Description:
single chain; alpha+beta; three-stranded antiparallel sheet; 62% helix; 17% strand; binds zinc ion
Amino acid sequence: MAGMKHQELLKGLIRLHILHHAVEGEFYGQWMIHELARHGYRLSPGTVYPMLHSMEQAGYLRSRPRFVAGKTRRNYAITAKGRSALAAGKEKVTELFGELFEDA
Ligand SMILES: [Zn+2]
């Protein structure tokens, strides 16, 4: 696992960010790995794929295989439960982090 500082603490925020992009449209794992890297989160496939899988198990995402250029790729899409989790997450982040930044 490529080390990410404070990984356990940040995983919930990363999951919310994944849902944020899933709302915009279907994505595949490698795309999300690049997107997270763009934000400064260098996560290995060994971290991101299990995360996507567990989010699917929890009902936040659904996936289907896509055949692209002779290779199978798994595309992920948000579910209704994922949408409501994102809405709840945004509300909590605003509330909790609003207070964090008040004293800054
Ligand atoms: Zn992003």
